[in-house]
Amino acid sequence: MTVSSRIEVIKCDITTVKADAIVNAANTTLLGGGGVDGAIHRAGGPSVLEACKKIISRQGGCKTGEAVVTTAGNLNATYIIHTVGPVWYGGGNGEKAKLSGCYKNCLRLAVENSCTSVAFPNISTGVYGFPKYKAAHIAADTVTAFLMKNNVIQKVFFVCYDDENFNLTLGALNDVLL
Asked: What is d(CA 147, CA 156) in angstroms, rounded to the nearest whole number?
């Protein structure tokens, strides 16, 4: 199975995707918020928040670029992998490496939890202000490089909520795979 056949770009609400793991673009508190984070917490139900509170009591939240895993609650998944993307401050504060770290750490946790499918949102491209074009290329580069070295994950979905992110992600993926 080729890497290109293991990646799919889709346009929909990530809370409707069926995958072993759904990635949440969380904040450091893990307590829910707006955008993707709020939607995933609402759709997942109270068990997701309870699982996040256990992580908070154990380690105090989640740092930028890192990831933690919880139950998926009512979602059509086994796990939610929460990752905290970087806020864009112009690119001179390690934002690119931190965003790449989000994808790597989520994929690592997916493998550790025997997930064969993972659905990613467009991490940091909303209120965190990461330039969408740059974020799409970092996502495509990082995920493709990981899949080239690992065969556990059979399908990665890049789930885009709007046309702009869909087209940018599809273009970035085509750039990497061609």
From this structure: 9
